[in-house]
Design goal:
This protein has 11 helices and no strands. By secondary structure, it is mostly helical. The chain is rod-shaped, with a radius of gyration of 34 Å. It binds a DNA duplex (14 and 14 nucleotides) through helix 7. It comes from Hymenochirus boettgeri (Congo dwarf clawed frog).
Length: about 325
DNA sequence: TCTTATGATTTCAT
DNA sequence: ATGAAATCATAAGA
């Protein structure tokens, strides 16, 4: 019975049609994650359906053989009945013996099928374990997101889906990537400085434009107009003014209703670039200018600035930007 | 071949 | 359920 259950679960002995899918789902569930790893997946499915087919043809063959054999024996008995009396009990007994024999053969078939499935399964899992690096493009996209959301690198479910689609990987892979990235970034920020610069600079121009646009949009209602004169090329001035602008933008003084959360990520990027260029002279030192201000005292991101903190009118003294006042 | 990078898995805490 | 942290296993580079 265990074998039956197992075969059923694997979709080998189940209903004709959905077998493959059921098995695939079972495999995915067993490996703890949605794994639409297309190539290996279809491969697995193909192999499984192959096993399934063999199983069913064998089963049919046995059944047929069983029937043939019983009729054969019945005929024999009938013939013998001419020479000696044969009770129905005896016939029944014979049939029973035959059926038992065949069912034990069937059991063997089931067993070996199970074995085959198990082997296939373990191979499949092994294959899944075999790590393949993501494409350059995919890591690019992921890194861009990560560094432009450095203050809160926790993509929402939707964002993950979006990223997954863009990178043509699965959502759980995106989650894995962010999990790994966060932990590794936090562990050794110095090591990631260069990369951070790269991606920050990469999106800086866009960010600058976006921020400029946002500022422009809100200028009418804004009392203190940020000097957005240099909206052109974002030529990284010697930190000062621009940085102050950013700070006020990000902090409490400027909280344009529309700008808030949407701009947050852009601000991250800009702030980063500015910080970097500002403290470039002795960069990568133990205490470079760019400290992970989005990490809290225990090195966690979790009470880092959320969009709500941007919108909140007053922030406590230990605000996000407090560390930048060198 | 050794080292580092990186994706995946496991374990634990919340 | 989700994330942090540790760990595993392989890819890639030296």
């Amino acid at each position: 019975m265990r074998l039956d259950n197992m075969l059923l679960a694997e979709g080998v002995s189940g209903p004709e049609k959905g077998g493959g899918a059921a098995a695939a789902a079972a495999a995915a569930a067993a490996s703890g994650g949605s794994s639409d790893n297309s190539i290996e997946h279809s491969d697995y499915r193909a192999k499984l359906s192959q096993i399934r087919q063999i199983y069913h043809t064998e089963l049919e063959k046995y059944e047929q053989a069983c029937n043939e054999f019983t009729t054969h024996v019945m005929n024999l008995l009938r013939e013998q009945s001419r020479t000696r009396p044969i009770s129905p009990k005896e016939i029944e007994r014979m049939v029973g013996i035959i059926h038992r024999k065949f069912s034990s053969i069937q059991m063997q078939l089931k067993q070996s099928t199970c074995e085959a499935v198990m082997i296939l399964r373990s191979r499949f899992l092994d294959a899944r374990r075999k790590r393949r690096n993501f494409s350059k493009q995919a890591t690019e996209i992921l890194n861009e997101y990560f560094y432009s959301h450095l203050s809160n690198p926790y993509p929402s479910e939707e964002a993950k889906e979006e990223l997954a689609k863009k990178c043509s990987i699965t959502v759980s892979q995106v989650s894995n990537w962010f999990g790994n990235k966060r932990i590794r970034y936090k562990k050794n920020i110095g090591k990631f400085q260069e990369e951070a610069n790269l991606y920050a600079a990469k999106t800086a121009v866009n960010a600058a434009h976006a921020v400029a646009a946002a500022v422009q949009n809100n200028q009418t209602s804004s009392p203190t107009t940020p000097n957005s004169g240099s909206s052109g090329s974002f030529n990284l001035p010697n930190s000062g003014d621009m940085y102050m602008n950013m700070q006020s933008l990000n902090g409490d003084s400027y909280q344009g209703a529309q700008v808030g959360a949407n701009v947050q990520s852009q601000v991250d990027t800009l702030r980063h670039v500015i910080n970097q260029t500002g403290g470039y002279s002795d960069a990568l030192g133990g205490n470079s200018l760019y400290s992970p201000h989005h990490l809290n005292a225990n090195g966690g991101w979790h009470d880092a600035p959320t969009p709500s903190s941007v919108t909140s009118p007053t922030e406590g003294p230990g605000s996000v930007n407090s560390d930048t006042s060198n």
